[in-house]
Design a protein that fits this description.
- It is a single chain.
- The chain is α/β, with parallel strands linked by helices.
- The protein is built from 18 helices and 19 strands.
- Strands 9, 10, 11, 12, 13, 14, 16, 17 and 18 form a 9-stranded mixed β-sheet that branches. A two-stranded antiparallel sheet has the order 1-2.
- The longest helix has 26 residues.
- It is globular and about 125 Å long.
- It starts with a helix and ends with a helix.
């Protein structure tokens, strides 16, 4: 054993057993390095002095004044150390940068009416020296706080958006009690950031730049299926020509009579309402109830900015107006909650559902100075702020038209059969429309149509930008509804495909479960009345029997429809006094017997 080996600490908390030095750029080991254990500084006499000093220190600390001074010193030391730790962790510290994983939406495809979900739920974004703010991401009805960059109108791009890595969680387990479609999580940004992400100018309309509409005081019907007087009876040649997209076009788009939409055109609106509808707005929300078909639903979770700047318009006919006034729901203010009520007179169709297609598809005619609009059917309740809906489904996707696909069907032929089975419309009219489209080249949906994911929309929600190409699309879509059946799901894909074959334009068909995230669907009024429990009619009490002494009643037979009166035996006052006296005597006797037993 050498002297060098005596000083080695092998395996003691990572202490070095070798020393290195650099020679000629090469790391080498020093050959003759000897580590010697240092002698102890404490001698034997020193240890004895320490033993004598400890009792003295203990006696000195035991004094009250000295102990209090020591405790105060320790408390002050702890306070200073904690304060320095907080300062180090403050967000304003120099050079401090944090990163937070943010969920965002990933695109996925629907195949054979089933959804494919990404397994990852959280992603990460790169650290950047930018301002950060607290946001709320809505997931499954709950609000979860996250930290992200401050989004401005210039920074909202597909590459930097904090929702890029959001993915759906796994689908919920099957539930026998709830077998229908369900909502799924959607990544929304805060209202302030959504408002800041609104484009400063409208999108450029491809090819079509100027769109005007046909006006004719006395339209004449020349074909069997030429539409209606409100639509102007467009001929088949005029219909086909309207699909040849040009820089400037004039097409049929309803309201063919009168000087302007809503003024002696059919679907007439009061002058004071018309002047309000012509005002400039960035975003509006519109809906309609005709034929007293639905119960008005109040929006929820609407921000102060939206309540101040986004008007909510509800179109109703005179029948619905009379019901609301009789129910004391509508008064002279023309407001029900957030909804501004607009009464329509001289409606052009006898079918309430077809009348509802006018504001649904021709909002750009009724609101000539509006940039963006959200249409929801009268049975739906909006539960997400309009700015957040616009940002999520329109502005973030860089598209000008968004509509949800059907939750189950994506083929027009299947949709037609489902409509006939459910009695949605006359079967012969549906067959005529589908046969007409087949002759024009309509085929069943297949993967050859990708990236188009469906031919059947769930048309109760439409999110759109009012530019010439989207205005043309809804005009031609309305003309199909006017010419054929009112089931707009059957004509949607035909109009879309004809326009997309001419210009570079597409529609964002998002998932139906995403739509169910921001609107809640209620039942129609007739279904609610059928589901309401019947009123309970209680039978009147039976008449009193004649010559019956007070306090006594005899059992008697009743009809099954008559409530049974159970006889009650009353006790007289004399009988109650006798019972009390008897109980007192009983207690005295028991007490006397107990005393005898004790003796």
């Amino acid at each position: 054993m050498t002297g060098g080996s005596l000083g080695l600490r092998t395996g003691s908390y990572g202490s070095l057993q070798q020393q290195y030095f650099t020679q000629n750029g090469v790391l080498q080991t020093q050959p003759n390095s000897i580590i010697v254990r240092k002698p102890s500084k404490m001698s034997l006499s020193g240890s004895r002095e320490k033993e004598r000093l400890l009792p003295f220190i203990c006696r000195y600390i035991s004094k009250k004044k000295v102990g209090m001074v020591i405790l105060v010193a320790f408390a002050l030391l702890a306070f200073i150390s904690g304060f320095s730790t907080v300062n180090k962790d403050a967000p304003g510290s120099a050079g401090l940068e944090t990163s937070q994983g943010i969920p965002s939406m990933k695109s996925y495809e629907r195949k054979a009416s089933s959804y494919t979900f990404s397994s990852s739920f959280f992603g990460k974004e790169e650290n950047e020296k930018e301002n950060s703010s607290s946001i709320l991401i809505k997931q499954s009805g709950s609000l979860t706080p996250y930290t992200t960059k401050l989004v401005t109108a210039d920074s909202v791009t597909p590459l930097s958006h904090h929702c890029n890595n959001f993915a759906f969680p796994p689908p919920p387990p099957p539930n026998r009690r709830r077998i229908g479609p369900r909502p799924c999580p959607v990544c929304y940004i805060p209202v302030e950031q959504a408002l800041a992400s609104m484009p400063k100018s409208l999108s450029v309309s491809p090819v079509l730049h100027n769109l005007s509409y046909v006006y004719e005081e006395n339209p004449i019907k020349t074909e069997t299926h030429g539409g209606s007087e409100f639509g102007g009876y467009p001929t088949l040649k005029q219909r086909n020509d309207s699909f040849n997209i040009k820089k400037s076009m004039t097409v049929h788009c309803g309201f063919v009579k009168g000087t302007k939409p809503g003024h002696k055109t059919g679907f007439d609106i009061d002058e004071d309402d018309l002047s309000e509808l012509e005002q400039f707005h960035d975003v509006i929300v519109a809906s309609a109830i005709f034929g007293n078909y639905d119960i008005i639903q109040q929006p929820k979770n609407i921000s102060e900015a939206a309540m101040k700047n986004v008007p909510f318009y509800m179109f109703i006919d005179e029948e619905t107006e009379a019901f609301m006034k009789n129910s004391s729901v509508l008064d002279s203010s023309k407001r029900i909650g957030l909804w501004r009520i607009v009464v329509v007179h001289d409606i052009p169709y006898s079918d309430a559902r077809r009348n509802g297609k006018i504001p649904k598809l021709l909002l750009h005619r009724i609101f000539p100075n509006v940039k963006y609009s959200i249409w929801i059917d009268g049975k739906l309740q909006l539960v997400v702020d309009p700015y957040q809906v616009m940002e999520r489904f329109l502005w973030r996707q860089n598209t000008s038209f968004a509509i949800s696909r059907h939750y189950k069907r994506f083929d027009v032929f299947e949709e037609a059969e489902a409509n006939k089975a459910a009695g949605k419309y006359d079967n012969s009219s549906i067959d005529y429309q589908i046969e007409f489209y087949k002759q024009e080249g309509l085929t069943p949906y297949s993967e050859a149509k990708l990236p188009i994911t469906s031919d059947v929309p769930e048309g109760c929600v439409i999110i759109r930008e009012h530019i010439p190409i989207t205005n043309l699309f809804t005009c031609l879509w309305f003309n199909e509804v006017d010419r054929f059946t009112a089931r707009d799901q059957l004509s949607f894909s035909t109009v879309r495909d004809k326009i997309m074959s001419k210009v570079s334009w597409s529609i964002n068909m998002f998932l139906d479960c995403e739509r169910r995230n921001f609107v809640i669907q209620a039942y129609h009024r007739d279904l609610l009345e059928q589901m309401a429990p019947p009123a309970k009619n209680y039978p009147p009490p039976p008449p009193a029997l004649p010559n019956e002494p007070t306090g006594k009643s005899k059992p008697f037979l009743l009809n099954t429809n008559t409530a049974l009166k159970i006889p009650v035996k009353k006790t007289s006052a004399t009988r109650r006094r006798e019972k009390r006296a008897s109980s007192r005597r009983h207690r005295k006797v028991v007490a006397g017997n107990r005393d005898k037993n004790l003796d």
